[in-house]
Amino acid sequence: MTTAERAVAPAEARAPAAASSPASFWLFAAHLWTVFGLALSNLLLGLAVLAVPASWIGRRGAARPALARLGGRAPALLGALAIYIVLLAVSVAASLDPGRSARALTELFNLAVLPLALVAVRGERDARRVVDGVILVAALSGLFGLAQFFFGYGDIDQRIRASFSHYMTFSGVLLVADCLLLAQIAAGRASWGRRGAWRWIALAAINLALLGSYTRSAWVGLAVALVLLVLVRSPRWLLALPVAGLLFVLLAPAPVLDRARSIVDLQHHSNVDRLSMARAGVAMIADRPVVGLGPEMVKTLYPRYRVESAVRDEVPHLHDTFLHLAAERGLPSLAAYLALMAVAAAGAWGRFRREGGFAGPRGDLQLGALLALVGFNVAGLFEHNWGDTEVQRLVLFVLALPFVIGGPEAPQAAPPPRPAERSSRR
Hints:
With about 425 residues, this protein is an all-alpha fold. Helix content is about 70%, strand content about 0%.
């Protein structure tokens, strides 16, 4: 055991007794496992928010061990979240319509998922329970979505969505779960025995449903995550990607192929509309680069910024997480969002390498978090997925995942002895 591991181990040993009660963990986990029904998920999240502080009542300093076990990067993650929240409040106050923008403050309830995860999920075993539950729920949702092909769903105008309100929400949940699952399979955790075979079934259900959703942003995010996985696992397998692409062209149904081709067709009406939204978004940012137009104002003011090439007169958002955040809340808010993602991704990759990659005990969880963040943000270039409540909840948990599973931090030099300590040795 390294020096860093020995330093973390005592804090981890104390954390379960002081950090939170079992009830807080199960409530937290259940709210993620029920994102397919947002009302129930909201109820469980609210109860989890109440359960964690209740478990500390009467325990002086109970929060200290919970924070100590998280490692050195966790304060940076919480700091980025705090800045993001402050800038949200600033953008509401400076909005062109503060009354309308104040509705965005409901996001604070969702953002509670991140700090709650840091104290409610108390180590590798808890984290694996949550991750496996998310994958299982995504697989069952995928099977539900596939069943909808027999009930009038399936074409581009009536896409499968399982129990979710929108097909993009459905595909966003599938994408995050798929990345976590792919890392498990690459680490060899999916055997054909009773305990591992379900992951192969889940892989088939999730990916078939993802294809059937016709959601191009999720497809692109998954493709980039797969390339990253191959680079990490075995770079020589990159040579097999053209073969895989050829098999896809030969075997994929015609509607899926047509949808895939449209990704690179700049004359496709959907792509023309997205490029028009991007031009409008840049103009919005140029007008108010620091505080943005105000939350909830992009939809209202889009007709004012709409360019002639736009297909639609009105849009709910700019179909780009980064542009939408900058236009709505300003460039500093975008920077805070990027900092959140960067700190978590760096934490996941750093711990993955220090623990020996896939040979380490938690390599699949660390790389799974990294793949999920990469896939989610690549998809966010073509869809405002951060604004999707159900997907955002899963991503907030993934942001916390590298820190709650334990493992060594980067070795730090010991501080020099204080003058008083030197004199006492003489």
